[in-house]
Write a structure and sequence with these properties.
It is a single chain. By secondary structure, the chain is α/β, with parallel strands linked by helices. It has an 8-stranded parallel β-barrel, surrounded by 7 helices. The longest helix has 15 residues. The structure holds cytidine-5'-monophosphate (C5P). Cytidine-5'-monophosphate (C5P) binds next to strand 8 and helix 10.
Length: about 230
């Protein structure tokens, strides 16, 4: 898969999501389905969007004992999604088990990427709540390296970290980056942002864009602007 723009479909219901996707006549953007929509609508929303011809990043961020993650990944693999994810903090063993569960009998599987440290975790909360005393960038790179060691395909990270992740894990290790905003757009609650063009420059493989597209007056135009800046 090459560079692409993934739209974060952070909607509360199937109706809102399909109404949104209906605006893209003739186009089939890559979409991200997160916990909110998945827990509201169940696996049928994944099948429905897949049947419409979209690629899907199922962002459920699994984290449990290796055996449970393995079995759950097998279920997600049957949904025929394109990308799944988990928390790297679940250990290398958990990530390896996830890969085993994800791999179908014919050897194919969805891509598997890891969340390193959530961007909502800062140095202070990491030290105080998690008792991790190392600098956060070092922790993020260590988790990325663990994901690579476990055989995963990449990580979710800030566009600001994408270059460093490629340096440490190789250029083929995927960086999937949220926190993207247009130069003239609202930053909202995202703290460290980049434009699609800057994310391309720094080497992100996929950008995940939510509100700059979903809340735009003309979402199709906003999506095309992302494609133009990031892919073309
Ligand atoms: O609307 P916005 O473009 O901020 O949406 C970004 C998407 O990426 C949301 O679905 C959010 O949950 C997700 N995300 C993020 N930062 C992370 C991991 C995921 O913004 N570190």
């Amino acid at each position: 898969m090459g560079k692409d723009v993934i739209i974060a479909c952070d909607f509360a219901s199937k109706e809102q999501t399909l109404n949104f996707l209906d605006k893209f006549t003739g186009k089939k953007p890559f979409v991200k389905i997160g916990m909110e929509l998945f827990y509201a609508e169940g696996p049928s929303i994944v099948r429905e969007i897949k049947n419409r011809g979209h690629k899907i990043f199922l962002d459920l961020k699994l984290h449990d004992i290796p055996n449970t993650v393995k079995k759950s990944m097998a279920v997600l693999s049957n949904l025929d999604v394109d990308i799944c994810n988990l928390h790297a903090s679940g250990t290398v063993k958990m990530m390896q088990s996830a890969l085993e569960g994800l791999t179908r009998s014919d050897g194919t599987r969805p891509l598997l990427i890891a969340v390193t440290q959530l961007t909502s975790t800062d140095q202070e909360s990491m030290e105080k709540d998690l008792l991790i005393k190392e600098p956060i960038d070092k922790v993020v790179m260590h988790y990325a390296h663990n994901a690579k060691t476990a055989g995963l395909d990449g990580v979710v990270c800030s566009p600001l970290e994408a270059g460093k992740v490629h340096e440490i894990c190789g250029k083929d290790f995927l960086t999937v980056t949220p926190g993207v905003r247009f130069a003239d757009g609202d930053v909202g609650d995202q703290k460290r942002v980049m434009t699609p063009a800057q994310a391309k420059e720094i080497g992100s493989d996929y950008i995940v864009v939510g509100r700059p597209i979903t809340a735009a007056e003309n979402p199709v135009e906003a999506y095309e602007r992302c494609i133009k800046e990031f892919v073309d």
